[in-house]
Amino acid sequence: MATIPQPAKKSYFFDKGYRDLGNTIKGAWARNTNSIKKYASNLGGLGDHGLPMKLFLGLVNILAMIAVVVCGSAITAIITFINIVVLLVFMAIVYLGFTIIWIVDRLYLVRKKIFTACHECKEKSLIPTYICPKCGAKHTNLIPGVYGILKRTCNCGEKLPTAFFNGRKNLEAECPNCGHRLTDRESRPICIPIVGGRSVGKTAFITAFSKEFIESIAPAKGFDIEFYNDKKEDIYKEITQDYLSGSTRMTDRPQDVNVASSVSFSFFVKHPKFSPERLVHVYDIAGEVFTDNNENEVQKQYEYCQGIVLIIDPFAIPSIRYKYEELLAPEDIAGIGKADINEIINSFLNKLREVTGLSDNKMATVPLAVVISKIDSAGLEQDIGSMAVNKLMKTDPEKFVDFFDTQDYLCRKFLKENNMESFLNNISIQFKNNRFFACSAIGHTRDKGQYKPEGVLPPMEWLFRNADPKMGQLWHDNTFSKKTISVEEN
Ligand SMILES: [Zn+2]
Ligand SMILES: [Zn+2]
Questions:
Q1: Per-residue pLDDT tens digits for 465-477
Q2: Does the pLDDT of residue 76 top 50, yes or no?
Q3: Are 178 and 205 members of one domain?
Q4: Is 50 exposed, middle or buried (0-12, 13-18, 19+ CB in 10 A)?
Q5: 5 alpha carbon – ligand 2 mean position (Å)
């Protein structure tokens, strides 16, 4: 519990109580010693008296000294003992009090899966640094403890709540790691990084997902959306603009090494059934992160994220590009991701290991949605899009029952036929819970009018459902069975 010194006044029994007890005991024993000294000095001052008187007074003083040593010490010892017991009892009561409230608070945070994922530096913390509204002092550990059970008194005199149920989350807070202002409000974060090489369509995917989720899914499911802060609202304005004009942006990689090269788009999702509200962080990670070997930045969100979207540009696969190049528009050829997919996946897996410090076993628990993008181009829809899925389900209705199981099958088959077997093996070895999807974020060649996304929502719905069953229950547009249809059989 609280071991870091806080800018607040400690509870009496853990601070002044000690000192008061110490002083009382010291005082009692000092009086005791003083009396003994007094009788001892009396013995030295008997010179004027006659011998019988000397003997008598000497005896009296010695008896008095013995009485003080025996009885006085006994009484002082008893008083000291009672004092200590009383203090200990009160300390125990206070200790018990804050321990109970601390446990209640901790259980609430852990059971409700509440934590803070800094939107800037991505560092995870259970409780952020709370700021005194009166003097601005930073309380790094605002929890029930020796500074107070339900409230603590800041050095400035302001009383601050120390638990989830009496208003702590309404205080201003900042990230304990980087000091950026937070507006988390003790909500439950759902963190999904979107990864992939340069130009694979990550930003377009986020644009299409955000717009569709916020403007179609949210109103239909009764979700109330609130942007994290003004900066995220500005991101949404850009998203809307891109969506309407059909343009795409490159995720800038800041030159400043101290600035994160992944940008989060963050918004709260509220619903009467959500307690606490959800906080969605979708991370757009610059493609260079996966291709530059000198990339030093640690992508801390991998440590705690509840799902990952890996986007692959099918036209970056040599045999597919070779087959379809003549069907592609010139601007689409220019926009093909250049990096080798196997290199990207290796670099991504290395990053993941580095950040999480996890063994391959542990990594396997994060759900991974592999999304083949740009399927509107060159007629790929007919290979892996909904057209192809529906056709196959009609042809072999016994084997292909579920839409997304069929799409997963078709995507894996498609990659296998295009010499991506080692990539497929890598994915299935590293991620136990993986699923393949196909999508088109823009829906057509870039810069030719408003987005017409297809297949962008299902991968996110699947990840959200894995991350948060309650949210999955409310956002229930598709079913995802768990049946993997083997590609080998054919
Ligand atoms: Zn931070
Ligand atoms: Zn204060």
A1: 999 999 999 998 8
A2: yes
A3: no
A4: exposed
A5: 14
